[in-house]
Specification:
The structure holds 2 protein chains of 2 kinds. Chain A is an alpha/beta fold. Classes of the chains: A alpha/beta, B mainly beta.
């Protein structure tokens, strides 16, 4: 028995030191992973630094936010497959719905948890052409002309590609008094003019800008404004007569934040997007803000566009996805018969 | 023809075609708009082909990144998840031995070939931070789980290992059975605990200059292994090993290691399960055992405290290697109404030299070139020698052990030659002579003179 007491005396302090070092290690570092879509790299680089500073001032805690970017649907797939995202900031609500449906990592009504349907900023789709607009492209119907080369990513993997598709479809419906068949033919003609399908928005930008392919790029307004800012002498933005209101959405991944005990900081991270500071950063990176003050301040950089939303024309994302982008859907029928 | 080859050739053809058209266009007096338009179309087609090829490459790279890897090579076979967090390695070794006894005119011992160890090893990682290790042994026609443990190693300085494993005590015992200098371990291993079930807290600090291990185990008799425990008392083991010059500029001393191991515990045996060891020669012949006939009156049993102590060390410098250890084991024993604390001691020194100049270390030989006689590569040859002794406490005789059957001392010396054909194949021949004090009805037990041979395959 004396031997055991001696052993306990030796081992107990060591075990205590071990536990204390574990606790200290756990306290000294908070990290979040934001899994986002392709063109938000620059936005979140600046936003993350601002939030870390804000959080330090508010709580005294250090927080580091890691970013992951890619095609929106591919990113959602990665989270479903186990990527430990504390928050997702994806291109469309449908991709976040998929995280609920396939992995139950968040609640079904996730979109009601934050203002504006959990879309802290919005955007739309526009067209980018080369300087001087040599192919005289002015609206969606110019994209179906023979000899026009259109760059847009793959709707199977890219969020913006689906927005592009739906914007063009909405335009065709309006031009043809709601005739779905004519809209389908219109979209089929556009995709006949698409020479290469990238997996995401940034890849499509690379194809158009760096590889010099195509006459027109359909992409996020924010992405096009960024390209034009960096290359004002090379490109022009064409604002179509009608486009779609794109609402990139954000949410906590509940099971991950609860497991990692990061719910409070992750929640604050998303809420800060709605603050004046967060809205200002979004507008600086060419996303359309909700804050009236920020909207007024940045009004000059956003052209006036007639917008429709996905609910009124397509009955929401679930229906649009099933009809157009599911396996065997309209896009497959169009593209596989190209 | 593969797609990328086709694309590459098409691109080259288009380039030549472009050039031809451009030259043709230049010969004209002005830039013809039709030619210019055609040129641009061809340029676009070329760019599209290149971009498609680029995207295919990117897609292939992503797929390769997500595909689990199957690896086969000199270190065995492994299956790894694409992110490296999950792994399964298949390793193992097999030893075919020969034992031939010299000066055994009475034919007491049997010359034999045997499968000494046949050990498949399954090891790997669960989710990056948890290693697992399972080693089975089919040697000698039996099936034994030699090792089965999980090692949590989030911090290399503080790791936690649970399961069945070697107790952190003897320097030679802790060497893998595949890396031994001689075919059989030396006499001190009779006093060293072998494999046991328990928990071990261990790690490396100061860039590997200090290694430590603290463990709590069921407790085994000297030289023993066990899969269960018959009593509540446990053994506590601690080992500290220092390589004081490992990270210094004193190259000649970098291979100097010194350590100490202690264990303490208590065990109570019974007439049917005395919890006491029998000691064997390197040829696995028993030369010492305590009295036991199954009756309480005539069986010596463990009856209390058991403590061990072992200073140990090694020195490796280039082709030269030396290691030694001293082991003292104290055990309270009882026979009938007589109780005593017996102190048995053993030590050994072993040295070796690589005749072919290869570098030696505690973990084995660095072998840069495999056996390929046509290229003049015959592998590596190592000459080894060892001297060791074990002394049983005088107080063990005659009450606790029968002096007519149990030797009071054994002294062994060995010479060996190891031939490493490559990293996987090793051939060894040893001569070992062991002499005894006592252990016979009159005088000393006859000396044991044995030639061992071993062919070892490991992967």
């Amino acid at each position: 028995m004396r031997t055991q007491m001696l052993a306990i005396k030796i081992f107990a302090p060591i075990a205590l030191l071990f536990i204390m070092s574990t606790m200290l290690h756990a306290q000294k570092e908070i990290t979040l992973l934001n899994v986002s879509y392709d063109p938000t790299r620059e936005l979140y680089q600046e936003y993350n630094a601002a939030f870390a500073k804000h959080w330090k001032e508010k709580t005294g805690e250090l927080v580091t936010i890691r970013q992951s970017h890619g095609g929106s649907s591919k990113q959602a797939r990665a989270v479903i497959d186990g990527l430990q995202a504390d928050v997702v900031t994806l291109a469309l609500a449908y991709d976040i719905d998929a995280i609920y449906e396939q992995a139950k990592l968040l609640p079904q009504d996730w979109q009601k948890r934050l203002p504006h349907n959990s879309a802290p900023y919005t955007s739309t789709l526009a067209l980018l052409v080369r300087k001087g607009n040599p192919k005289k492209i002015k609206d969606w119907d110019d994209l179906i002309r023979p000899g026009i080369s259109v760059i847009t990513p793959n709707p199977k993997t890219s969020g913006v590609a689906r927005w592009n598709y739906l914007a063009a479809w909405g335009y065709a419906l309006k031009q043809n008094n709601g005739d779905q068949q004519k809209a389908k033919e219109f979209i089929a003609q556009i995709y006949k003019n698409v020479p290469v399908l990238d997996s995401g928005a940034r890849g499509a930008t690379t194809t158009f800008v760096e590889r010099g392919i195509g006459d027109v790029l359909i992409n996020w307004e924010n992405e096009l404004l960024l390209i034009r800012k960096l290359n004002p002498e090379k490109y022009e933005i064409i604002v179509p007569s009608l486009s779609i209101l794109a609402e990139p959405t954000v949410t906590l991944v509940d099971k991950v934040v609860d497991k990692r005990k990061t719910r409070a900081v992750a929640q604050a991270y998303l809420e800060y997007l709605y603050s004046e500071a967060g809205q200002e950063i979004a507008a600086k990176h060419f996303y359309r803000a909700h804050s009236p003050a920020v909207v007024a301040k940045y009004a000059a950089q956003f052209p006036q566009i007639n917008l429709f939303n996905i609910d009124e024309v397509f009955g929401g994302w679930q229906k649009a996805q099933k009809t157009h982008f599911a396996d065997g859907g309209v896009f497959d029928q169009i593209y596989l018969n190209k | 023809m593969k797609t990328h080859q086709l694309l590459a050739r098409s691109t080259t053809l288009l380039l030549f075609f472009n050039l031809a058209i451009a030259l043709h266009a230049q010969t004209r007096s002005g830039v013809d708009s039709t030619f210019q338009q055609r040129l641009e179309e061809i340029d676009q087609k070329q760019r599209i082909l290149e971009r498609k090829w680029e995207l295919q490459q990117e897609e292939a790279a992503v797929k390769a990144k997500d595909t689990p890897a199957l690896v086969a090579g000199k270190d065995g076979f492994a299956l790894k998840s694409s992110d490296g967090r999950f792994q399964l390695k298949l390793r193992g070794y097999a030893q075919t031995d020969g034992r031939f006894y010299l000066a055994d005119d009475e034919k007491r011992l049997v010359n034999t070939f045997l499968l000494r160890r046949v050990r498949p090893i399954f090891e790997g990682t669960f989710d990056k931070n948890f290693d697992y290790y399972l080693m089975l042994d089919f040697g000698g026609g039996t099936t034994v789980v030699q090792d089965a443990y999980v090692d949590f190693h989030y911090w290399p300085q503080a790791r936690l290992r649970l399961g069945k494993l070697k107790e952190p005590f003897g320097i030679e015992r802790l060497q893998s059975g595949a890396n031994l200098l001689f075919i059989e371990r030396g006499l001190p291993n009779n006093l060293v605990p072998n494999r046991d079930i328990g928990v071990q807290f261990h790690g490396e600090v100061a860039k590997g200059a200090i290694t430590y291990a603290l463990g709590a185990f069921n407790g085994v008799a000297d030289g023993g292994s066990a899969d269960s425990d018959a009593g509540d008392e446990k053994d506590y083991v601690a080992r500290l090993f220092l390589l004081p010059f490992k990270n210094s500029k004193a190259v000649a001393l970098q291979g100097l290691g010194l350590g100490i191991a202690v264990s303490t515990g208590a065990h109570i045996g019974s007439a049917t399960s005395p919890s006491l060891p029998a000691f064997r020669t390197p040829a696995q012949q028993t030369y010492f055992s305590y009295r036991a006939d199954g009756s309480a009156a005539n069986t010596t049993i463990a009856s209390g405290k058991r403590q061990r102590f072992s200073p140990q060390g090694y020195y490796y410098a280039g082709a030269f290697g030396l290691f030694g250890e001293y082991v003292r084991s104290q055990q309270e024993v009882t026979r009938g109404s007589t109780t005593a604390e017996l102190r048995n001691e053993a030590w050994q020194m072993a040295g070796s030299f690589m005749l072919t100049g290869h570098k030696l270390s505690y973990r084995g030989v660095a072998l840069p070139k495999p056996f390929e006689p046509k290229d003049g590569n015959w592998g590596a040859f190592e000459l080894a020698t060892r001297y060791g002794k074990i002394e049983i406490d005088d107080a063990a005789f005659p009450i606790f052990a029968d002096p007519a059957k149990a030797a009071q001392e054994a002294t062994a010396w060995s010479l060996g030659l190891n031939w490493y054909l490559n990293r996987n194949v090793k051939f060894t021949v040893d001569y070992e002579q062991t002499e005894f004090k006592g252990g016979a009805g009159t005088g000393n037990r006859a000396a044991e003179k044995v030639i061992f041979s071993r062919l070892q395959i490991s992967y």
